[in-house]
Write a structure and sequence with these properties.
Blueprint: H1 5-15, H2 22-37, H3 44-53, H4 66-84, H5 92-103, E1 120-121, E2 124-125, H6 129-144, H7 151-164, H8 171-185, H9 198-207, H10 212-233, H11 240-246
Antiparallel strand pairs: 1-2
Helix pairs in contact: 2-3, 2-4, 4-5, 4-8, 5-8, 6-7, 7-8, 9-10
């Protein structure tokens, strides 16, 4: 198997507290886009400021939701969690742990546990709360029985996970963190669904049972973008111009 360069670089920079590298870039890009897809109003610059200074730079008279700030900081912690545990198998407890980190200290009623009331994705009904645990168990069983995992397997898992919609909120962020983790685990270039692909991403989820290619092509396009950034950090070490370009 070829070297897992993305994992090597991310882990090295994380463990050695290296600034302005791939890990630093990924934290900001991932938190900004994943929260933005779910309605966060924070800009990329504000996300960067929170990450780098643990404070917020805002414009005069700008109204900022407290949850947006909390969920941004939580996403940084959740990314560290999946990086530290990239090789662990997926199970119900692990998924709940991710959700608990993503939604900690927010105004949500149920954090780190499956939903207690029914919910919808747009006008699409999702799995009834009483059936969530059994449906997640079936999904995990079929996925963990795969002898090898490719990117389409990960995307397929994501679609099924989002269709079940096991949590009252935070399903998308939790699901996208799982995809990133599973890519790292299986030596697949990871990817971040960015805000530019939001409508294509939603269409892909909605139409997946009819046309799988919509979601797959969206994910592959985002993977290509992340690979371009990754190339900037593959040895020999990038010079300052390359790093600045990546950011």
């Amino acid at each position: 198997m070829s070297r897992n360069l993305a994992l090597e670089i991310l882990l090295d920079e994380y463990k050695n507290c290296i600034k302005n590298g791939l890990y630093h870039y990924t934290q900001i890009l991932f938190a900004y886009n994943s929260n933005r897809i779910e309605g966060s109003k924070l800009s990329k610059e504000q996300t960067r400021y929170i990450y780098e200074t643990n404070s917020l730079l805002s414009k005069k008279d700008e109204v900022i939701e407290i949850n947006d700030i909390i969920e941004t900081k939580n996403h940084f912690k959740a990314f560290d969690f999946i990086l530290e545990n990239y090789d662990k198998p997926l199970d119900e407890d692990f998924i709940k742990q991710i959700h608990a980190i993503v939604k900690k200290d927010t105004s949500d009623r149920v954090v780190g546990d499956f939903k207690k009331t029914a919910n919808f994705i747009g006008d699409l009904k999702t799995t009834n709360p009483k059936n969530v645990s059994s449906e997640i168990a079936k999904l995990l069983k079929s996925y963990n029985e795969l002898k090898s995992v490719n990117i389409e397997d990960i995307i397929n898992f994501h679609h099924k996970f989002e269709s079940i919609h096991p949590f009252e909120d935070g399903n998308g962020r939790t699901g996208r963190l799982i995809m990133f983790k599973e890519c790292l685990k299986n030596n697949i270039t990871p990817f971040i669904i960015d805000d530019e692909h939001k409508l294509f991403y939603y269409r892909g989820l909605r139409e997946y049972n009819n046309i799988k290619g919509y979601l797959i092509d969206t994910c592959l396009s985002c993977q290509d973008k992340y690979q371009e950034i990754l190339n900037e950090f593959i040895s020999p070490k990038p010079d300052n111009d390359k790093v600045n370009k990546a950011f």
